Amino acid sequence: MSILKVDNITMRFGGLVAVSQFDMTLNEGEIVGLIGPNGAGKTTAFNMITGVYKPTEGSVFFQDDKSAVDITKYRPDEITKLGVARTFQNIRLFKELSVLDNVLIANHLRLKSDVFSAMLTLPNYRKEEKAMYEKSIHLLEEVGLQDLMHEKSTSLPYGKQRRLEIARALATNPKVLLLDEPAAGMNPKESLELMDFIADIRDRFKLTIFMIEHHMQVVMGICERIFVLDHGVTIAQGTPSEIQNNEKVIEAYLGVD
Ligand SMILES: Nc1ncnc2c1ncn2[C@@H]1O[C@H](COP(=O)(O)OP(=O)(O)OP(=O)(O)O)[C@@H](O)[C@H]1O
């Protein structure tokens, strides 16, 4: 069953067409990759799906439990609440906060109590806070960061900061997780560990994953389908082996280096 439908979205910045008629359906449980040279429009596509940019044309639909919801005009926080979470190309952690506090903050998005209950620390709020605290610790256990929960987030090695960023996205209970270059800046060993980690959380959290990645070993090793953008245009889509053997892709991307 499809969970996210991207219907011919286009993004223009003045005269520049950053993404042209990007069309894609994500099926539940898939890991799908988005690749392409620098400036191809990958992050812009993510930004349109997550509400950071409103597409100039086209629509995005999220399949809720009951029906397809048109999220094209939703705000980023509304889209996250519905079940689409993301990470960013440059790690965006709260640098001064501990590992645990970084996850706790993300959890707040899910709190049902309002600001007044929080200020007055009413029983319901306290109950939710406690549940949130326990859930955050559980999440850190799930991603193998429990021993580091009281460390400052930026004191973690790079690979673990990425993991924390993903844990933070998981705290919002997503159904779809968008990862923007999760292997960026990682050494080969960290990249391989990341691949196993992503496949593992997909299974354990029943996620559908859409990821931008330049690291070919990661993309080809983990994605079931891949889309290739070049100058905003989808020049290919298919399985990893189809993409690796596609002449347009080789010319536009894999051949360049
Ligand atoms: N807010 C903006 N205003 C104007 N132009 C933009 C804006 N955001 C992106 N662009 C342009 O749109 C094009 C696509 O950029 P985008 O960041 O989506 O590419 P990308 O494939 O993610 O690149 P990279 O791999 O380098 O991250 C680029 O030419 C970029 O300069």
From TrEMBL:
<dbReference type="GO" id="GO:0042941">
    <property type="term" value="P:D-alanine transmembrane transport"/>
</dbReference>
<dbReference type="GO" id="GO:0005524">
    <property type="term" value="F:ATP binding"/>
</dbReference>
<keyword id="KW-0813">Transport</keyword>
<dbReference type="InterPro" id="IPR032823">
    <property type="entry name" value="BCA_ABC_TP_C"/>
</dbReference>
<dbReference type="GO" id="GO:0016887">
    <property type="term" value="F:ATP hydrolysis activity"/>
</dbReference>
<dbReference type="GO" id="GO:0005886">
    <property type="term" value="C:plasma membrane"/>
</dbReference>
<dbReference type="GO" id="GO:1903806">
    <property type="term" value="P:L-isoleucine import across plasma membrane"/>
</dbReference>
<dbReference type="Pfam" id="PF12399">
    <property type="entry name" value="BCA_ABC_TP_C"/>
</dbReference>
<dbReference type="GO" id="GO:0015808">
    <property type="term" value="P:L-alanine transport"/>
</dbReference>
<keyword id="KW-0067">ATP-binding</keyword>
<protein>
    <submittedName>
        <fullName>Branched-chain amino acid transport system ATP-binding protein</fullName>
    </submittedName>
</protein>
<dbReference type="Pfam" id="PF00005">
    <property type="entry name" value="ABC_tran"/>
</dbReference>
<dbReference type="GO" id="GO:0005304">
    <property type="term" value="F:L-valine transmembrane transporter activity"/>
</dbReference>
<dbReference type="InterPro" id="IPR003439">
    <property type="entry name" value="ABC_transporter-like_ATP-bd"/>
</dbReference>
<feature type="domain" description="ABC transporter">
    <location>
        <begin position="4"/>
        <end position="256"/>
    </location>
</feature>
<dbReference type="InterPro" id="IPR051120">
    <property type="entry name" value="ABC_AA/LPS_Transport"/>
</dbReference>
<dbReference type="InterPro" id="IPR003593">
    <property type="entry name" value="AAA+_ATPase"/>
</dbReference>
<dbReference type="GO" id="GO:0015188">
    <property type="term" value="F:L-isoleucine transmembrane transporter activity"/>
</dbReference>
<dbReference type="InterPro" id="IPR027417">
    <property type="entry name" value="P-loop_NTPase"/>
</dbReference>
<keyword id="KW-0547">Nucleotide-binding</keyword>
<dbReference type="GO" id="GO:1903805">
    <property type="term" value="P:L-valine import across plasma membrane"/>
</dbReference>
<dbReference type="GO" id="GO:0015192">
    <property type="term" value="F:L-phenylalanine transmembrane transporter activity"/>
</dbReference>
